[in-house]
Write a structure and sequence with these properties.
Layout: E1 3-6, E2 19-22, E3 28-30, H1 31-64, H2 66-124, H3 130-148, E4 153-158, E5 165-170
Antiparallel strand pairs: 1-2, 2-3, 4-5
Helix pairs in contact: 2-3
Length: 174
């Protein structure tokens, strides 16, 4: 801090002995009060230095904060759990589609076996006519249609949650 010497009154004690002007704040001080003023400025600088160091420690603590790591672990657990729930739901839906398809095929096989048995019985007993032949053709055509065009299965999404839920509805309503 630079000082200019002039015979003026000290701004703290009003004495007119040897005084100096602080070039920072422009106040006039006697030697005793100038030393106090210099010490106060030094103390203020030290306090700011300490605050800077404390702030730097806070930043370091934020980088290594175990709470932050715990939050990241919580997010990772949520992610894993959500993926597992989605995988389980997808497995349930696949099982439902497979069960529905298997049930449709089993029904077709029962109908085919009944048609085959009736047809074979009529042929064995030679008890058939054109109407029986037409009926057997109609039933076989219907079975082919059902096989080519399987049971109606539709899907829809429920988008009210963060992860949309998927549903499968079969023609039997399940």
């Amino acid at each position: 801090m630079a000082r200019a010497y002039a015979p003026s009154q000290c701004s703290r004690c009003d004495k007119t002995k040897s005084t100096s002007i602080c070039t920072g704040c422009r106040a006039i001080y006697c030697r005793d009060h100038l030393r106090e003023h210099d010490q106060k400025i030094s103390n203020d600088f030290e306090q700011i230095r300490d605050e800077i160091n404390l702030f730097q420690e806070k930043i370091y603590d934020q980088k290594t904060d175990s709470k932050k790591r715990a939050l990241l672990n919580l997010i990772n657990e949520w992610e894993t759990s959500t993926f597992e729930q989605i995988r389980q739901r997808a497995d349930q839906l696949r099982d439902k589609v497979i069960a529905s398809t298997n049930q449709s095929i089993a029904n077709l096989e029962r109908k085919l076996n009944a048609l085959k048995e009736s047809f074979q019985t009529n042929m064995k007993e030679e008890n058939y006519n054109e109407q029986d032949l037409d009926e057997a053709n109609r039933q076989l055509s219907r079975l082919n249609e059902l096989l080519d065009r399987p049971k109606s299965i539709m899907t829809y999404k429920e988008e009210t949650s963060f992860v949309p839920n998927l549903f499968v509805v079969t023609s039997d309503g399940s």
